[in-house]
Specification:
single chain; 5 strands; binds adenosine monophosphate; HIT family, subunit A
Length: 113
């Protein structure tokens, strides 16, 4: 199967502005930001969609959320940010490697479009 864009970023075959990484995940700035802060947090493990995660991934999913907290705090928006996961093409997912969007730095309306 062809590598996803995000797998290429993990493998350093595509450039990205990486703001955080550890043994479980990587976070980098979205190339087409929807807010002043728009960062994607991805697991190193290639889980295509959130609905493909299993109970084995429970700790990893928690780690991604806590990493989002840490990044929002480091960006200066620890008390006001949004985390979004688009699951499936009809829900807006375009890259099939699980990712959390962190959005911050402007008023965020609800519900999203
Ligand atoms: P989604 O539509 O939820 O799958 O989100 C995919 C996101 O990846 C979009 O917000 C894109 O702007 C972003 N994106 C696509 N290619 C890159 C890239 N090479 N580097 C950083 N972000 C990207």
């Amino acid at each position: 199967m062809a590598k996803t864009l995000f797998q290429k970023i993990i493998d350093r075959e595509l450039p990205a502005t990486i703001v955080f990484e550890d043994e479980h995940c990587l976070a980098f700035r979205d190339i087409n930001p929807g807010a002043p802060v728009h960062i994607l947090v991805i697991p190193r493990k290639p889980i295509p969609r959130l609905c493909d995660a299993t109970v084995e991934d429970q700790a990893l999913l928690g780690h991604l959320m806590l990493t989002a907290n840490k990044i929002a705090e480091a960006e200066g928006f620890g008390g006001a940010f949004r985390v979004v996961v688009n699951n499936g093409a009809e829900a807006g997912q375009s890259v099939f490697h699980l990712h959390l969007h962190i959005l911050a730095g402007r008023p965020l309306k609800w519900p999203p479009g």
